[in-house]
């Protein structure tokens, strides 16, 4: 009796495992087809100067619209793409699409593209980036590649070499989500970053917690001293905006200024910026 119960449980367990494995495989298979099926799209989120309130550029954020799964967040599919080696193809597509798009924007606007650590470690990163940027016609200094602290954990010499080569062709480097990983302020001295993106977790608490405020103030100060642009991620309220502006943070990005939108809505937005009013800016008016 106990034995049959036990094996019954094992069976249920086994079939759950089976279901999960099947789902994992089907997710991966869907993701592999996503590009070809036109389910991927890049959304763009504005970054603005805190003082002039002018748009400095846009961050390219990948979106996956699956006919049945609906919108799958990048936090779910990027790690899978990294695991199955698909990130190179997806990353190249994002870079090509974003650079081609940005080449048509006014020259004052930059485009920021996220680079996965897996892409960063790839042997032919430099070659593929340079080829893509050149073909797009975008001036390389209008491209900002966002890397995360995790790439700094790897062999430092290789990391520095890669960053130096990217910088040599004029590409800008931004340190994304700064403060969330394990790298120290010292890493800002060792690597040639152009920009520091202060992580949203500090911004969320910047008006309510002294520790978060102290970190934002410190990082902004260090960034300024080292000649790097600082940008606060995830600005959602006027109070947060005023707070980061007060400590001297140069740029902001967040829902208060604008949510990520498709390139088509961006055209409209840019036309509006040359003309009358920007609804996205309403929240920022004094
Ligand atoms: P990230 O690079 O730090 O991008 C910023 C994320 O914060 C985006 O989430 C954006 O929608 C969200 N965000 C911006 N402003 C606000 C705000 O005011 N409040 C809140 N709550 N969130 C805000 P998203 O688009 O879901 O992307 C998540 C992460 O996925 C990105 O974080 C990035 O690490 C990764 N990712 C997105 N697109 C790509 C890509 O093309 N390649 C790679 N390798 N990673 C990507
Ligand atoms: Mg980013
Ligand atoms: Mg970020
Ligand atoms: Mg982030």
Brief summary of the model shown:
The chain has eleven helices and ten strands.
Topology:
Blueprint: H1 2-34, E1 40-49, E2 55-66, E3 70-72, H2 74-83, H3 87-102, E4 110-114, H4 117-120, H5 125-136, E5 143-148, H6 156-168, E6 172-178, H7 187-190, E7 195-198, H8 200-205, H9 210-225, E8 229-233, H10 238-246, E9 251-253, E10 261-262, H11 263-274
Parallel strand pairs: 2-4, 4-5, 5-6, 6-7, 7-8, 8-9
Antiparallel strand pairs: 1-2, 1-9, 1-10, 2-3
The chain binds ligand C2E and magnesium ion (3 copies).
One magnesium ion binds near residues 176, 177, 197 and 233.
Protein name: EAL domain-containing protein
Task: Kindly describe this structure.
- The structure is a single chain.
- The longest helix has 33 residues, at 2-34.
- The chain has eleven helices and ten strands.
- It is of the alpha/beta class.
- It has an eight-stranded mixed barrel with strand order 1-2-4-5-6-7-8-9, surrounded by four helices.
- It is globular, with a radius of gyration of 21 Å.
- The chain has helices spanning 2-34, 74-83, 87-102, 117-120, 125-136, 156-168, 187-190, 200-205, 210-225, 238-246, 263-274; strands at residues 40-49, 55-66, 70-72, 110-114, 143-148, 172-178, 195-198, 229-233, 251-253, 261-262.
- Helices cover 47% and strands 20% of the residues.
- Mean pLDDT is 91; it is low at 274-286.
- Residues 177, 200, 233 line the site of one magnesium ion.
- The site of one magnesium ion has 4 residues, from strand 6.
